[in-house]
Design brief:
By secondary structure, the chain is α/β, with parallel strands linked by helices. The protein has eleven helices and 13 strands. It has a five-stranded mixed β-sheet with strand order 1-7-6-4-5, with helices on both faces. Strands 8-13-12-11 form a four-stranded mixed β-sheet, sandwiched between helices. One of its GO terms (molecular function) is beta-ketoacyl-acyl-carrier-protein synthase III activity.
C-alpha cells in the first residue's frame, strides 16, 4: 500500500510585507531582492501561531478530501518554530480538527521537514501501521530572524501547508534522505522567539540574529546535493528525468531552482515556483506549492511528481510518487 494524496490545504497570514516595506527597515530595495532571490513579498503572522496555521491548513485538506477527521490515524507536523515545546504542534492540530483517534508528533528538520515527514508517513502506511495520515509543514520564520539583519530578513515568511494521505494500491513511492552534521554551522538558529530577544539583552550587548547563514555555502550545497539526490531516486525507481511531470522543490531562492534545472538539463517549466509571493516559509514551502498547484488543477492522475527539500542540519531529501 502507498499513501495517495486525497486532500491538500494551506494557510498564510493576511498581513503582507513587500520588499518596499523592508526597505524602510534595512538598507535594501525591491530590485536588489528580486534579482538575487526572486522574492517580492512575504506573509507575516500577527496574532497567529505556528499551530494555528498548521490547523487551518489541515482543516482545508480535510474539507477537500471529504474524509471524517475521526478516520485519521496519525498527524505529523514538520516545524522548527512551534510556539511551544510541548504540547507539540501535532497535538494542537489534533484538537483543532477533531481527529481524536490520531497519534501526533512533530518532526524538526527545518526546510527539509515536510519531505521527510511525507516519507515517514509513507513508511507507516507501507508497513500497515496507519491507513490515513495528515502531513503538515508549518513555520513562523518571522519569529526567528533579526529584522535588522539584511542578509536573512529578506528571505523568510510565515505559512503552513498540509497533505492528507490515504492508503491505496499503487506504484511504490521512492525515497532518499541524507544529513551532514559536520556542515551544520552553515545554517543555524537559536531557540528563542523574537518577542523575547531584546529584553534578554544586557545593556550594551550586541544583538545577534536568530538565524545565522553562510549564504554562499548553502547555495553551493543546494545546487550540488539536490540534483544528486534526484538522480539517486530516479536510479532507484528506474525512471528517467523525462518521465517526471513536475519537480516540486523547496522554495528558498529562484537562483537555486534555476541552477538545479540547469544541472539536470531539464526545462525550467517543470520547476514551479511561488516564492515571489511567499518567500521562504521553511517546512511549509513544498506543501503550500502543492496545494496551489492542486487547486489550480495542474495535477492529473498518474503524473509523476518529484519532491525535494534541503536545509539546516544540513539535511536533504527527495520523494518520487504518482498523483
Amino acid at each position: 500500500m502507498v499513501g495517495k494524496i486525497c486532500g491538500t490545504g494551506s494557510y498564510v497570514p493576511p498581513h503582507v510585507m513587500d520588499n518596499d516595506d523592508l526597505s524602510k527597515i534595512v538598507d535594501t530595495n525591491d530590485e536588489w531582492i528580486r534579482e538575487r532571490t526572486g522574492i517580492g513579498k512575504r506573509h507575516i503572522i500577527g496574532e497567529e501561531t505556528t499551530s494555528y496555521m498548521a490547523g487551518q491548513a489541515a482543516l482545508r485538506a480535510v474539507e477537500q478530501s471529504g474524509i471524517d477527521p475521526e478516520e485519521i490515524d496519525m498527524i505529523l507536523v514538520a516545524t522548527s518554530s512551534s510556539e511551544t515545546v510541548f504540547p507539540c504542534a501535532a497535538c494542537e492540530v489534533q484538537k483543532m480538527i477533531g481527529a481524536s483517534r490520531a497519534v501526533g508528533y512533530d518532526l524538526n528538520a527545518a526546510c527539509t521537514g515536510f519531505v521527510l515527514a511525507f516519507n515517514t508517513a509513507q513508511a507507516y502506511i507501507s508497513a500497515g501501521l496507519c491507513r490515513t495520515v495528515m502531513v503538515i509543514g508549518a513555520d513562523s520564520m518571522s519569529n526567528m530572524i533579526d529584522w535588522t539583519d539584511r542578509s536573512t530578513c529578506i528571505l523568510f515568511g510565515d505559512g503552513a501547508g498540509a497533505a492528507l494521505l490515504r492508503a491505496e494500491e499503487g506504484s511504490p513511492v521512492h525515497m532518499a534522505a541524507h544529513s551532514d552534521g559536520v556542515k551544520g554551522p552553515a545554517l543555524t538558529g537559536l531557540s528563542r522567539h523574537r518577542k523575547n530577544w531584546e529584553k534578554e539583552l544586557e545593556p550594551g550587548a550586541v544583538k545577534e540574529s536568530y538565524i545565522h547563514m553562510d549564504g554562499q555555502g548553502v547555495f553551493k550545497f543546494a545546487v550540488r546535493k539536490v540534483p544528486e539526490i534526484i538522480e539517486e531516486v530516479l536510479e532507484e525507481s528506474g525512471k528517467s528525468l523525462d518521465e517526471i511531470d513536475y519537480f516540486v522543490l523547496h522554495q528558498a531562492n529562484r537562483r537555486i531552482i534555476e541552477a538545479v534545472a540547469k544541472r539536470l538539463k531539464t526545462d525550467i517549466s517543470k520547476f514551479p515556483m511561488n516564492l515571489e509571493e511567499y518567500a521562504n516559509t521553511s517546512a511549509a514551502t513544498v506543501p503550500i506549492l502543492i496545494d496551489e498547484m492542486n487547486r489550480k488543477g495542474m495535477f492529473r492522475k498518474g503524473q509523476k511528481i518529484m519532491m525535494a527539500g534541503f536545509g539546516a542540519g544540513l539535511t536533504w531529501a527527495a520523494s518520487l510518487f504518482e498523483w
